[in-house]
Task: structure prediction
Amino acid sequence: MRAQWNSQDITRRQDLYKEFIECASKCYVHALQHGEAYIPALVDLYAKLGRMRIFSSPKVLEDAEQIERRIVDTYLAPDKTFLELREMINSGSVDLIRTFSEACPL
Result:
């Protein structure tokens, strides 16, 4: 019974981390291209972060909060052109979630 509960707990965390990564990625791309924040998506991201506070490690939370701050800061920066986005992809600077995904337990 305990093994089953642990397995379900791991699956729930993995699903939440996956949802957070997908939502953060969409928010970040939107922020790179728009100066006006898309509030519903940010609220969704914030809600996922709140759910993670229940059972995630301090490192995972720290990385998730950093992602959230970077997304909000990106809205305040000038919009990126398609060529600038390509340069960011080629340089690897567009990878917002790497440290978060590395911190997430398997």
Summary: Residues 2-103 form one domain. The chain has one domain: 2-103. The CA atoms of residues 18 and 101 lie 9 Å apart. The chain has a mean pLDDT of 91.
